[in-house]
Specification:
With about 140 residues, the protein is of the alpha+beta class. The protein has one domain: GAF domain (Beta-Lactamase). It has 5 helices and 6 strands. A 6-stranded antiparallel sheet has the order 3-2-1-6-5-4, with helices on both faces. Strand 5 and strand 6 form a beta hairpin. The longest helix has 18 residues. The protein is globular and about 35 Å long.
Protein backbone atom coordinates (compact mmCIF):
# COMPACT_ATOMS: atom_id res chain seq x y z
CA UNK A 1 0.00 0.00 0.00
CA UNK A 2 1.25 3.47 -0.78
CA UNK A 3 1.58 6.18 1.85
CA UNK A 4 -1.44 8.20 0.69
CA UNK A 5 -3.72 5.16 0.88
CA UNK A 6 -2.51 4.37 4.40
CA UNK A 7 -3.09 8.02 5.42
CA UNK A 8 -6.61 7.99 3.98
CA UNK A 9 -7.53 4.72 5.66
CA UNK A 10 -6.18 5.97 8.99
CA UNK A 11 -8.16 9.22 8.67
CA UNK A 12 -11.34 7.23 7.92
CA UNK A 13 -10.72 5.04 10.96
CA UNK A 14 -10.14 8.11 13.15
CA UNK A 15 -13.25 9.74 11.72
CA UNK A 16 -15.39 6.78 12.80
CA UNK A 17 -13.82 6.83 16.26
CA UNK A 18 -14.21 10.60 16.75
CA UNK A 19 -17.83 10.74 15.53
CA UNK A 20 -19.02 7.42 17.04
CA UNK A 21 -19.90 6.23 13.53
CA UNK A 22 -19.90 2.69 12.19
CA UNK A 23 -18.88 3.55 8.63
CA UNK A 24 -16.93 6.22 6.79
CA UNK A 25 -16.10 6.50 3.10
CA UNK A 26 -14.75 8.74 0.36
CA UNK A 27 -16.21 8.98 -3.11
CA UNK A 28 -14.45 10.54 -6.10
CA UNK A 29 -16.19 12.52 -8.84
CA UNK A 30 -15.17 11.78 -12.42
CA UNK A 31 -15.65 15.24 -13.93
CA UNK A 32 -15.53 13.84 -17.48
CA UNK A 33 -18.61 11.65 -17.34
CA UNK A 34 -20.14 13.11 -14.16
CA UNK A 35 -20.13 9.83 -12.23
CA UNK A 36 -19.24 9.19 -8.61
CA UNK A 37 -17.44 6.12 -7.25
CA UNK A 38 -16.75 5.15 -3.66
CA UNK A 39 -12.98 4.63 -3.45
CA UNK A 40 -12.10 4.16 0.21
CA UNK A 41 -14.12 2.99 3.19
CA UNK A 42 -13.72 2.00 6.82
CA UNK A 43 -16.16 -0.16 8.78
CA UNK A 44 -17.66 -1.76 5.67
CA UNK A 45 -19.51 -5.07 5.93
CA UNK A 46 -19.07 -6.03 2.27
CA UNK A 47 -17.33 -4.77 -0.88
CA UNK A 48 -20.45 -3.64 -2.75
CA UNK A 49 -19.54 0.01 -2.27
CA UNK A 50 -16.60 -0.50 -4.67
CA UNK A 51 -18.93 -1.41 -7.53
CA UNK A 52 -21.32 1.51 -7.15
CA UNK A 53 -21.35 4.10 -9.92
CA UNK A 54 -23.65 7.01 -9.16
CA UNK A 55 -24.71 9.81 -11.47
CA UNK A 56 -24.45 13.37 -10.27
CA UNK A 57 -27.72 14.33 -8.60
CA UNK A 58 -28.66 10.73 -7.72
CA UNK A 59 -28.28 9.17 -4.31
CA UNK A 60 -26.79 10.77 -1.24
CA UNK A 61 -23.37 11.40 -2.78
CA UNK A 62 -24.90 12.65 -6.03
CA UNK A 63 -26.99 15.21 -4.16
CA UNK A 64 -23.91 16.46 -2.31
CA UNK A 65 -22.06 16.85 -5.62
CA UNK A 66 -24.97 18.49 -7.41
CA UNK A 67 -25.76 21.03 -4.71
CA UNK A 68 -22.28 21.31 -3.17
CA UNK A 69 -23.69 21.19 0.32
CA UNK A 70 -23.89 18.95 3.39
CA UNK A 71 -26.64 16.31 3.42
CA UNK A 72 -27.86 14.95 6.76
CA UNK A 73 -30.08 11.93 7.24
CA UNK A 74 -30.56 11.27 10.94
CA UNK A 75 -33.22 10.91 13.60
CA UNK A 76 -34.46 14.48 12.90
CA UNK A 77 -35.06 13.83 9.18
CA UNK A 78 -38.76 13.51 8.34
CA UNK A 79 -39.64 10.27 6.54
CA UNK A 80 -36.06 9.05 7.00
CA UNK A 81 -36.91 5.36 6.69
CA UNK A 82 -38.28 5.81 3.18
CA UNK A 83 -35.65 8.37 2.20
CA UNK A 84 -32.75 6.03 3.07
CA UNK A 85 -34.12 3.51 0.56
CA UNK A 86 -33.14 5.95 -2.23
CA UNK A 87 -29.45 5.82 -1.26
CA UNK A 88 -27.54 2.73 -2.45
CA UNK A 89 -24.63 3.20 -0.03
CA UNK A 90 -27.04 3.22 2.92
CA UNK A 91 -28.74 0.06 1.71
CA UNK A 92 -25.50 -1.77 0.94
CA UNK A 93 -24.03 -0.98 4.37
CA UNK A 94 -27.34 -1.13 6.27
CA UNK A 95 -26.92 2.47 7.46
CA UNK A 96 -29.81 4.17 9.24
CA UNK A 97 -28.21 7.60 9.76
CA UNK A 98 -25.59 9.42 7.70
CA UNK A 99 -23.95 12.75 6.98
CA UNK A 100 -22.18 13.52 3.71
CA UNK A 101 -20.09 16.61 2.93
CA UNK A 102 -18.42 17.79 -0.27
CA UNK A 103 -14.67 17.70 -0.80
CA UNK A 104 -13.75 20.84 -2.75
CA UNK A 105 -10.65 20.95 -4.95
CA UNK A 106 -9.89 24.08 -6.98
CA UNK A 107 -13.39 25.44 -6.47
CA UNK A 108 -15.19 22.28 -7.67
CA UNK A 109 -16.75 19.40 -5.78
CA UNK A 110 -14.22 16.64 -6.44
CA UNK A 111 -15.43 14.14 -3.87
CA UNK A 112 -17.74 13.27 -1.02
CA UNK A 113 -16.89 12.32 2.55
CA UNK A 114 -19.54 10.31 4.37
CA UNK A 115 -20.05 8.98 7.88
CA UNK A 116 -22.86 6.63 8.80
CA UNK A 117 -24.36 4.70 11.65
CA UNK A 118 -26.26 1.41 11.66
CA UNK A 119 -28.43 2.71 14.50
CA UNK A 120 -30.59 5.81 14.70
CA UNK A 121 -28.53 8.74 15.91
CA UNK A 122 -28.65 12.51 15.97
CA UNK A 123 -25.42 13.93 14.57
CA UNK A 124 -24.28 16.93 16.61
CA UNK A 125 -23.04 20.23 15.22
CA UNK A 126 -19.60 19.35 16.57
CA UNK A 127 -19.55 16.02 14.69
CA UNK A 128 -20.64 17.70 11.46
CA UNK A 129 -18.04 20.46 11.81
CA UNK A 130 -15.38 17.83 12.49
CA UNK A 131 -16.46 15.99 9.31
CA UNK A 132 -16.13 19.24 7.32
CA UNK A 133 -12.67 19.82 8.79
CA UNK A 134 -11.56 16.33 7.72
CA UNK A 135 -13.03 16.96 4.24
CA UNK A 136 -10.78 20.02 3.96
CA UNK A 137 -7.81 17.87 4.94
CA UNK A 138 -8.70 15.39 2.20
CA UNK A 139 -8.94 18.21 -0.33
CA UNK A 140 -5.27 19.02 0.25
CA UNK A 141 -4.35 15.36 -0.37
CA UNK A 142 -6.13 15.44 -3.73
CA UNK A 143 -4.48 18.60 -5.09
Amino acid sequence: MDTIQVDIEQKLHDLCTNTSSDFSAIAHVDQGNQTIRWEYAHGFTNNRYKNMVIRSGKGLSGSVVRFGTTMILDIDTPDRQRTRLQYPIMLAENLVSAVAVPIHVNGKVDGVLLIGSRTEVKYTTEQIEFLKKVAKEFSTLKK
